[in-house]
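Run log // design_07
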């Protein structure tokens, strides 16, 4: 087994990851590293053999860990990486700060980052996936992000360097986002708080927020088919395509497309990661057969499938 660097944080071998994801599925990581602070993280990455894969993991809100687990090191940031500070119209947030907490702290200071309020997860993942809601995205407000490279160096990244796209950025593999700086318009704190409460009420009325889910399963389609030809479906939502294919409430083992919102996949209590992924692939296949549109996963899937018994 590869010799691991000495750390001041917590380094755990064969750490099960199912309890760290919202869907509650998945096998173990070879190693789970929870750094004590930035210096600990940098030193660890600098000393870690280059052949060992690194996967930064947030709060597991938009993630399926496959049943065979994750090879290499999973890095999960916690205390020491969740500070939030507001100066004028700029908000600096650690990667482990929850999106909802950042939105509320900003609103209390009269800065409108309200779009973050209903996005599940933490800031690191929001930057990595260019998270968005209500027509606003991280890319619209990000001033800069700081990250630690696979070699342990701290770098600052501009939005242009991150090359944001829809639910996507070009962050190099193994780099760990540690902080983001946002710029937001000003707003009245009470008005912003009322707006966010209304958004939460709408979310709870339309999405299965009490179930084990991972947010939207598939990205909304672009204006192009899977063959690259322009189509007339750019205004369609993934849930509409799933409904048209008759898949609202569809099941595979313990996995189900929610009856409340058909683009939300839920673990009814007994699902494996294989159940969830198989259901997702069946939905993609059926939607493509029905419309010619290839849905793309929004949920990240990582790790290896479990060996057949």
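design_07 sequence
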């Amino acid at each position: 087994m590869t010799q691991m660097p000495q750390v001041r944080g917590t380094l755990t071998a064969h750490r099960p990851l199912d309890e760290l994801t919202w869907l509650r599925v998945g096998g173990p990581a070879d190693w789970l590293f929870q750094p004590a602070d930035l210096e600990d993280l940098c030193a660890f990455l600098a000393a870690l053999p280059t052949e060992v894969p690194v996967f930064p993991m947030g709060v597991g809100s938009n993630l399926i860990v496959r049943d065979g687990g994750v090879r290499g090191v999973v890095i999960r940031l916690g205390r020491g990486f969740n500070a939030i500070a507001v100066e004028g119209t700029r908000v600096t947030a650690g990667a482990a700060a929850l999106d909802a907490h950042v939105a509320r702290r900003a609103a209390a200071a009269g800065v409108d980052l309200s779009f973050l309020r209903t996005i599940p997860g933490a800031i690191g993942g929001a930057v990595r996936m260019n998270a968005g809601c209500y027509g606003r995205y991280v890319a619209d407000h990000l001033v800069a992000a700081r990250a630690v490279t696979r070699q342990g160096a701290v770098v600052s990244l501009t939005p242009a360097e991150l090359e944001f796209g829809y639910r996507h950025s070009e962050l190099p593999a193994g780099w760990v986002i540690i902080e983001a700086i946002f710029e937001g318009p000003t707003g009245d704190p009470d008005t912003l708080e009322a707006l966010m409460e209304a958004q939460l009420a709408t979310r709870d009325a339309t999405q299965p927020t009490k179930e084990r889910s991972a947010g939207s399963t598939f990205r909304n389609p672009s204006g192009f088919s899977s063959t690259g030809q322009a189509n007339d479906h750019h205004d369609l939502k993934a849930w509409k395509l799933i409904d048209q294919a008759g898949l609202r409430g569809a099941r595979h083992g313990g996995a189900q497309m929610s009856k409340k919102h058909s683009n939300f996949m839920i673990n009814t209590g007994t699902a494996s990661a294989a159940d969830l992924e198989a259901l997702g692939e069946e939905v993609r296949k059926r939607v493509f057969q029905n419309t010619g549109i290839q849905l793309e996963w929004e949920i990240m899937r990582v790790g290896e499938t479990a060996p057949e018994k």
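The radius of gyration is 20 Å.
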